[in-house]
Request: fold
Amino acid sequence: MWATFLSWDLQVLHLINKVWTHPVLDGVMAVVSSFALFKIPLAIGVVALLIWGGFRERVFLVLMIFCVLLGDTAIDGGLKKMVQRPRPHEYLEQVRIVDLNEVQWSKPHDHPGGKSFPSGHAFNNVAIALVATVLYGRWAWLLWPWAMLVSYSRVYTGSHHPSDVLASWILSLIYTWIVLLVAEWCWQRWGARVFPKLHARHPQLIFQKKPIS
Reply:
């Protein structure tokens, strides 16, 4: 069964990375997959929410930052060291390596790395989408297609196997949901003592029947 799964994994990788391609898609996927291009816009967005946002926006920022730090540093980093799965372009021949400057064809490395599983890009974008959806409802649904696009781009560019991305989605949904439950529990248990006035105005931190004003 494991052999069948690996075969399926490589077949889907082949389709996304080599067959379902186009020069325009190469450029789009390279941009979507490059976190460096979004650092400044994200920083501006965080500062804007801190300055002009209300209680809900600050809750969103705190939870988003915590989930990203937890996912990136602890879970993603820990699993990468534990699993040590090479990226497709590190051990397979003729995988398209798509980046901002060019498209190259891979050659197996003598000493491939082990950072393919899981996908930090998928971790972070799924976590942000889930936090936003719980806090903002339907207005946050646009983040899910973006998370899917980013995840797809990681396979398209030869950086991850399809199974890496799929497992990352499942793990991210689980740990982010746990973070949300724990945050709500902490607010209910200690919020009134630490922030009495704020807690009186917002008795529920996340799971509210009415939107936070």
Notes: The first strand starts at residue 96 and ends at 98. The beta strands are 96-98, 103-105. The chain has a mean pLDDT of 92. The chain is about 70% helix and 5% strand.
